[in-house]
Amino acid sequence: MIGDHFVLMLIFSFLVSLVFTFIAKDRAKERVKYFLFLLASFILLSILAGWLMYPLPL
Amino acid sequence: MEQAPPEAGQVHAEVGFVKTLTACVAGALVPGLGHAVLQKWDRAIVFLGSISVMFALGLRLEGRLFGPDFTDLFSILKFVADAGSGLLYWFCWLRGLGVGEPSSYTYDFGNVFVYVAGLLNMLVVVDAFDIAMGRKR
Fold first, then answer.
1. N vs C: which end of chain A shows fewer Cβ within 10 Å?
2. Residues B24 and B132: beta-carbon distance below 8 Å
3. Torsions phi, psi for A57 (to 5 deg)
4. Angle subtended at Cα A25 by Cα A47 and Cα A18, rounded to the nearest 5 degrees
5. Distance in Å, alpha carbon of A20 to nearest chain B alpha carbon
6. What is the C-alpha separation between B106 and B54, in angstroms, rounded?
7. How far, in Å, CA of A39 to CA of B99, rounded?
8. Domain that holds residue A43
9. B137 interaction partners in chain A (CB closer than 8 Å)
């Protein structure tokens, strides 16, 4: 479980998003919105980057 | 000749300087401690928890703690990123933890977790500096 690439990516995204959110925002409501935005961005862009690299090496 | 008493603004500036320095040094040593000094408890708890978990996971994933090796640029950068975690890094490194297992397929993940924990802590120290200087709340 801990060695699963996707789970590790989720854990990484969660922790980094949490730290960035608390650095960037002060109010609770803003924090929730910003955290969810960052988390979704991390996950979706990681999956996108993975698919873009799928044909490599050519 | 008698010296004039310091003005209120000067005393305030000196207290501000001591507090800023204390917050930055504390934050560099222990993640989140700088914010605790500034009584930003919510941030302190989140930073301590997140960065410590990330660092511990990096070791658990058989990542390596790069020691002070100044032979080439990448070694220096790896060391600086790792050592950004402060006492977490030095305690584990001195205890001989974080030897790393390059044949393990989680080795690179582990290294990234440890690097990012250190780099995030550097950002957290800058944030504590900004708060102590009154640039943000």
1. C
2. yes
3. -70, 145
4. 40
5. 9
6. 14
7. 31
8. 27-58
9. 26
CA distance to A10, B37, B73, B79, B87, per residue, from B26 (Å): 30, 8, 28, 20, 10
Q: Is residue A20 part of a domain?
A: no
Report the complex ipTM.
0.88
B18-34: string of b/e by CB count within 10 Å (b at 16+)? eebebbbebbbbbbbbb
Rounded distance between C-alpha atoms, residue B89 and residue B114, angstroms:
9
Q: Which residue of B has its CA nearest to A25?
A: B137
- The number of folded domains in chain A is 1
State pLDDT tens for residues A13-55: 999 999 999 999 999 999 999 999 999 999 999 999 999 998 8
- Å between A33 CA and nearest CA of chain B: 17
Contact check, Cβ <8 Å, A22/B43: yes
Contacts of residue B75, defined as CB under 8 A and 6 or more positions apart, other chains included, come to B66, B69
A53 inside domain: yes
Q: Which residues of A touch B (CB under 8 A)?
A: 2-3, 5, 8, 11-12, 15-16, 18-19, 22-23, 26
pLDDT 10s digits, B56-82: 999 999 999 999 989 999 999 999 999
